[in-house]
Structure formats: structure tokens, C-alpha cells
Amino acid sequence: MKALNVAATGMMAQETNVNVIANNIANMRTTGYKRQRADFQDLFYQNLRRQGSQTSDAGTVVPAGVQVGSGVRVVATPRIMSQGDIEQTDKETDLAIRGEGFFIVDMPDGRTGYTRDGSFELDATGTIVTEDGYTISPGIVVPTNATGLTISQVGVVQATIGNDTSPTVLGQLQLARFINKAGLEAIGDNLYLQTDASGEAQVANPGDEGYATLLQNHLETANVVPVTELSTLISAQRAYEMNSRVIKAADEMLSSTSNMG
């Protein structure tokens, strides 16, 4: 019975949906995390009576026809790149992005990563790095005798060196933008990679037209809304249960047919 296979596709689709929701909930406290959603698409149809086909020599046609669907599939799990809340941390190397853009990360294998996670540290050489030790491009070094580190809204990094009375500019942070942010590939560790779908990275200074500004001593929280995720989870659970009931009903119908006579 076709209903068995159709309902099975529905259960598998909702299983993926629940996995996506679970990952969102698990990352509620992940800095800069962007939630995902599951998008669905119906499968091909079997035409038992094609609409528009001729039914008589007089030219009458079938107005609606008979089509039987094959079920559903998950076609995409796009990320929702909306702004997360800004949380104060009072740590001088913490940076929040307010608006469009990603920090640029030089990865050890030579690839370039992109992140919204601004929880940075200084390594043994004074270089600004991620919590995994990856250098934040363009590789700004804070001298060991520097005090009063400040990072402006437009990404200018300054500190007072030694006994100097005025701060010294140490470098300029930059941000990258993409035409299709949802096309970035997430690789874990709060990092994304550029893909053909995302388009080329467009790099500029914070505060330039169309680019975000930075906020020192703050971090961007995940854009996960717990109430929304729980509501979606309940809907997914109900859909899964209804598909399982279809399988049970189809099994009972087959059993009744086999017991006839």
C-alpha cells in the first residue's frame, strides 16, 4: 500500500526537523550562533488521470484530474542570520558585531574562516586570536607592555605602550560580508566557510556603508528563541505521530484485506 511509503517519508522528514530543533536548543548559549530551520518539499506525483486530458470527441477535458503524491523530503536547513542580543561581559578582548558582517579568521590549514563569535584572547605573542588560537585577520599584535587596550566601533585597535602618554594605533580590524549568508558552510567551532552559494567575501572596515560596527566588552548571543523552538518541536512531534498513525491504519487495512474470505 502506497500510504505506508508516503507516511514513512513524513516520519523521516520530521525526524530531521526534530534534529534541527534539538541543535538549536543545544546551542542557546553558544556565542554568535545562528539558528536553523527545516524546509520541506513534496515529492513527485503519480498521474492516474491527467488534468486537461480530453474526455470526448466534443472536446471536453478533465478539469482537475487525479494525482497521488509520494510524500515529502527535507530540501534545505537554512540558517536564520538575524541579529542576536548583545550581552555585556566587561572583557576588553570581547567584541560584538552590531549589523552585517563576520570576523575573518586565518585557519592553521590555510583556509579562511568567518565567525560572529567575538570572544577573543591574546596568545603568547600578544596576537588577537579565537578561543581555539586561530589568528583574527589581519593579525594584530598587542605588545606585552601595552595597557588600556581599546577597540573602537570602526575596528581601530589602540593601546598605550610603556610610559607613553598617548595611545598607539596597533591595527585595523576588518569584516567580511556575503551576498548569500545562508550559503555559508558551517564547520563547527563557530566557524563558516565560503562556498559557491555564498559568493565571494566582500571585505571592508567596520562602519563602512552596509557594514556593522563593533562593541568592545560585549558579545552577541545566539538568536535562538526558546518559546519558538518549543512550539516548533511540539508541531514536529504531532506531525510525526500523525504519520505513524497512517502507517498503523494502512497496516490494519492490509490485515483486513488478507483476512477476507
Low-confidence stretches: none
Radius of gyration: 27 Å
What is the share of helical residues? 10-25%
End-to-end gap: 20 Å
* H/E element order: HEEEEEEEEEEEEEEEEEEEEH
- Overall average residue pLDDT: 92
If helices are DSSP runs of H or I spanning 4 or more residues, what is the number of helices? 2
Pfam families: Flg_bb_rod, Flg_bbr_C, LlgE_F_G_D1
Domain Flagellar basal-body/hook protein C-terminal: 216-260
Family: Belongs to the flagella basal body rod proteins family.
Protein name: Flagellar basal-body rod protein FlgG
TL;DR of this structure?
This protein has two helices and 20 strands. With 261 residues, it is an alpha+beta fold.
SSE inventory with pairings:
Blueprint: H1 2-26, E1 39-42, E2 45-49, E3 66-69, E4 72-76, E5 86-88, E6 95-98, E7 102-106, E8 112-115, E9 121-122, E10 128-129, E11 135-136, E12 146-151, E13 156-161, E14 168-172, E15 175-177, E16 185-188, E17 191-193, E18 202-204, E19 213-216, E20 218-220, H2 226-258
Antiparallel strand pairs: 1-4, 2-3, 5-20, 6-19, 7-8, 7-11, 7-15, 9-10, 12-13, 13-14, 15-18, 16-17
Family: Belongs to the flagella basal body rod proteins family.
Domain Flagellar basal body rod protein N-terminal: 4-34
InterPro entries: Flag_bb_rod_N, Flagellar_basal_body_rod_CS, Flagellar_FlgE/F/G, Flg_bb/hook_C_dom, FlgE/F/G-like, FlgG_G_neg, LlgE_F_G-like_D1
